[in-house]
Specification:
By secondary structure, the protein is an alpha+beta fold. It has 4 helices and 8 strands.
């Protein structure tokens, strides 16, 4: 869904309701658990965002609170904290238009040293594919890492037409998401 004005929360709620039983827009559902499929752009972003248990706990809470999406050009409308089946509308303000992209959480990871979720695209998304948001803590160095792993390809005609811009937006999101997580971990009370 593309519009010249940002959709309001009522419009988004109706959209999410209409997509409640929608199928994913790609056949390789769950592929972020292993080998990435052929025919897609593969994106990997990672950074050290902290050290030790407190930073790991802050990073986990930031994931629960959708902090990776707190960027100036993005608005989010999640149904709840990330859990299997949760839908989220991510609205990006790009090139003077508001792009509404809807995804559903496929799976979550909640282990001693790893925490996160992956979501897959639904209809009303400019791309087709899947994205994993993960924080992990190294047992050896105690470093806390934030990682994004994604495969996608343009789905909407304008995203295909503006392919270089779509790729640029993906890169911009990955870098911005890392910065958002660093802020959330370093000062969780503020962010």
């Amino acid at each position: 869904m593309i519009s010249l004005r940002c959709p309001d929360s009522d419009q988004i709620a109706r959209l999410l309701l209409s997509l409640d039983t929608a199928d994913y827009t790609y056949p390789q559902v769950g592929a972020t658990r292993g080998e990435m499929p052929d025919g897609y752009n593969i994106d990997r972003h990672s950074a050290i965002i902290g050290h030790g248990n407190a930073d790991f706990e802050n990073a986990k809470q930031a994931i629960r609170d959708w902090k990776p999406f707190e960027l100036p050009w993005i608005k989010t409308f999640p149904q709840s904290a990330p859990k299997t089946g949760t839908m989220i509308a991510v609205i990006a303000h790009l090139f003077g238009m508001w792009w509404t992209n809807v995804s559903r959480v496929l799976y979550t990871i909640d282990e001693a040293e790893r925490f996160g979720f992956a979501y897959g695209t639904l209809p009303h998304h400019a791309e087709s594919g899947e994205e994993l948001f993960l924080v992990d803590r190294s047992g050896e160095t105690n470093e806390v890492h934030y990682r994004i792993t994604a495969f996608s390809r343009p789905r909407h005609p304008l995203a295909r037409l503006g392919y270089p811009f779509s790729r640029g937006a993906q890169e911009r999101f990955g870098n911005g998401s890392i910065d958002a997580m660093k802020r959330a971990v370093s000062d969780p009370a503020r962010y």
